[in-house]
Fold this protein.
Amino acid sequence: MAVLRREDGAEIHYAEHGSGFPVLALAPGGLGSAAEVWDRMPWQPVPELAGHYRVITMDQRNAGASTAPVTGTENWRTYTADQLALLDHLGVRHCHLVGMCIGGPFILGLLKAAPERFDRVVMLQPIGLDGDRRNREAFHEMFDAWARELAPRHPDTSARAWATYRAAMYGGDNALFSGPDSALPTIETPMLGLRGDDRYHPSGASELAAGSVPGARLVRRWREPEHLSSARTTIAEFLQG
């Protein structure tokens, strides 16, 4: 993988596959979002798309091979800035976005920050809060497990900084975390959603996005073997426009 070095000391590892119109693929895995996690998913952007597109994968800061300081000032905008910096570094002014799991909130952050740069987006089972917010603790537990694994590499990061980081990522009441629910109807970028159905990817999060973004389409069944082939075709046709 190649490396993008950021001014704050982050080193973002990324790779490119294939050629054609660019697609930035934002991997699942929570804050452990790394390119290799795609390899365990039922739909994988590199084998599915690299024959026709320039597929860009990346390890988010402090995930996979990427590293970064932990200061307690991190939030969703920190990740958006990394992602836009990578596109700038690669000279990509316009691209498609595909994202699974935490990739859903990452997509929303990018659409909020620079909507003119993205032509089409595919959001696969985004993470989110369920209707009564009872699953919030699942994200706190996931963050804490990630932080415990990372902490030995950041001995100077205080407990307060870790707590502030967690609150900035998962402490709000936005259903999709990275932006207010009220922003969804303002999105003009064509969107295809594939529904989630578990504690981390509640169906309500997918349904909220697809039901609020004008013209968005939602695929309700896709992961199962009997539905996966159709889902692959749907994604391919959607990105082709």
The helical segments are 45-49, 76-89, 103-113, 136-150, 159-170, 203-212, 225-240. Residues 23 and 112 are 18 Å apart (CA to CA).
